[in-house]
Design a protein that fits this description.
Layout: E1 2-3, E2 6-7, E3 12-14, H1 23-31, E4 36-37, E5 42-43, H2 52-57, E6 68-72, H3 76-88, E7 93-98, H4 103-106, H5 118-131, E8 136-141, H6 151-161, E9 165-169, H7 184-192, E10 197-200, H8 206-216, E11 220-223, H9 233-243, H10 252-270, H11 272-287, H12 293-300, H13 306-318, H14 328-331
């Protein structure tokens, strides 16, 4: 998949998710085969640029691959300035967020709330694409509500504005993450514009990735929640798309070492106080598929030290009598 001068290979991406796709998780996803990963969204408000949250989200030191930074906001001039600022600080691709359905984002008319105002969408696309020399991409949804799925209009506007690639989630903002993603309109997007296209939403297995690519004609799959607790999904998906069969299952010990390393990297990145809190959701996702995982999650969430978390996780994983790490999509074959 080509985005500007950047060749994305394999065309299997980690979708941007606020509070999840931080540097430790992006690095992990890339180690397990993701060809591309987009940052957590950064506010375009310059007064928030140096907050602790923004500084964590804008930390790319030591990260490999294309540096893609997502920006969010509703003011075209402010978004254009945010694009320039991030490009000047090393961003190689700028991604505009018009897909986030969260209330706190939509309440300030950003994220997917922008899809209600097509004139503003056009102003933002032109302002940001014209502000920087690096490629600008757009992450969006089918529309704001089920009665106005205007993604085809937005896609044409994006192409006319000079946007370099699109990523479309197969739900409206009204749906949030309820129900199933649908892909018919995403296939129509591929037919109506010549832009490289990521398909996103409910990509939870290599088999689903292949089926959705075949249905839509999209150029790549962008995986979000499906990667939570199973970052090896990227490697399995890339192999399945290449070979048509799943690769051998990941040995349990290899996966366990990766999980423990991810825990340690989060502790190192955030420091003990924040790290102990932030790791809890990730460890809950990892252990959900393991025997005793729910009881362990509850006990783990009561641990207040990094060392205590590390020791507890190592002991829990060492007691698992498994040769391979379990995955839903292998059990379904």
């Amino acid at each position: 998949m080509q985005i500007g001068s950047h060749l994305i290979s394999p065309p299997v991406a980690l979708a941007p998710m606020a509070g999840i796709t931080d540097k430790p998780f992006r690095r992990l996803a890339k180690r397990f085969g993701a060809g591309y990963a987009v940052s957590e969204m950064l506010s375009s408000d310059p007064s928030l640029r140096h907050t602790k949250k923004s500084l964590f989200r804008s930390d790319f030191d030591g990260e490999t691959g294309v540096r893609a930074v997502q920006i969010a906001g509703s003011d075209p001039k402010q978004l254009a300035e945010a694009a320039r600022y991030n490009a000047d600080n090393g961003a190689e691709i700028i991604d505009i967020n018009m897909g986030c359905p969260a209330k706190k984002v939509c309440n300030v008319l950003a994220g997917s709330a922008l899809l209600q105002n097509e004139a503003l969408v056009g102003d933002i696309l032109r302002a940001v694409a014209g502000a920087v020399d690096v490629p600008v991409t757009l992450k969006t949804r089918l529309g704001f509500c089920d009665t106005n799925k205007n993604v085809l209009t937005v896609a044409r506007m994006a192409e006319d504005a000079g946007i370099a690639a699109l990523a479309v989630h197969g739900r409206t903002r009204e749906q949030m993450y309820r129900g199933d993603a649908t892909y018919d309109l995403i296939g129509e997007v591929k037919q109506c514009v010549r832009l490289p296209l990521w398909v996103n939403g409910d990509i939870t297995s290599p088999q689903k990735a292949a089926a959705v690519l075949a249905q839509t004609g999209a150029d790549g799959v962008m995986i979000g929640r499906g990667a939570q607790g199973q970052p090896w999904l990227f490697a399995d998906t890339a192999a399945y798309l290449r070979d048509g069969v799943l690769p051998p299952a990941l040995p349990f010990q290899t996966a366990a070492e990766a999980v423990c390393a991810h825990l340690a990297e989060m502790h190192a990145f955030y420091g003990e106080t924040a790290g102990v809190r932030i790791t809890r959701k990730h460890i809950g996702w990892y252990t959900a598929r393991l025997a005793g995982g729910e009881d362990f999650r509850k006990a783990f969430n009561r641990i207040e030290s990094a060392a205590g978390q590390s020791d507890a996780l190592a002991a829990f994983l060492a007691a698992q009598p498994l040769a391979e790490w379990p995955t839903d999509y292998r059990e379904a074959v």
